[in-house]
Amino acid sequence: MRWTSEQRAFAIEAYFSNNHSYVAVQRAFRTHFGIKPRGPVPDRKSIVLWVGNFRTTRSVVKKSSGRQRTVTTPEKVKAVRQSIFRSPTRSTRKHAVALDISNRSMRRILHEHLHFYPYKMVVVQEFSPRDFQNRIMACETLLETLPPDALVFFSDEAYFHLSGYVNMQNMPYWSGNNPRELHERPLHSDKVTVWCALPRVGVIGPYFFEEDSHAVTVNSQQYVGMIKNFFEAALEEMHLGNVWFQQDGATAHIARAWGYLKAEVFKHRPTNLLPLKNVIWQEVAQIPVHMLERAEGNFRKRLHQCIENSGHHLQDILFKTI
């Protein structure tokens, strides 16, 4: 209920005139303003607040809450720019406190006036000076020995957990009160261990590493058995010519394909392992060929980029522009 300054002033006066009785204030308020028996009158909490504000400010005007909206001036924009340049990793809240402006004004200046946006730091493996030369030599060797028409197989394994994953940012719960909603998940979710090889002509796989229908951690014996009994047999059926096979140590080549595959698989929300495996078979068969062609093309392109960059990290790959 919104009360006018006149109504607040009357309630305060009635409070002091009726020996600090809140019931007497409400009765006088109802009579003075002609309010019906069941009509709204100020409650005890409101009267306490008005009286407290009056004792502090000697005013019946509603006390403003929070910081007043500040006017953006060229001087403030300049101050924000200088503050950000001095400490670019400092939080906007701390910048706002240091500059004595509201956090809202701080963000408005950053976005609307300076066109600054928050960027996340990328964590990469630290290289030693010797690593740079080794990377260059490896790239040069591959480019010299890898024929243009060679069929390159990128391979790796990944885990598909039956529970999938939960993105809490995409799970809001709208309510007047906190429902204290819990999302329970098993400590050790059922999973399958999947291996695939991805050349530009199509996918070999999936192959499931398991014993007695249960997923297992891949060891050397199981891996060699898969190569001999599954992968080599698939190659013979395909009647391929010049083949190059990459195994492990270069997951970046197919990380995007795995991410794409997991996103597609969990759209089906499988409830046990058999449907999960069936969905993986289904989605692997539907991986677009253009995605595989692009993966191999990017591999050759990045070999050249690594050499041109003296073996250092490829920042245009790590920091992609939209």
From TrEMBL:
Q: Which residues form the DUF4817 domain?
A: 4-57
UniProt GO MF annotations: nucleic acid binding
- Please give one Pfam family short name: DUF4817
What's the domain of life for this entry? Eukaryota
State the protein's name.
DUF4817 domain-containing protein
What taxonomic ancestry is recorded?
Eukaryota, Metazoa, Ecdysozoa, Arthropoda, Hexapoda
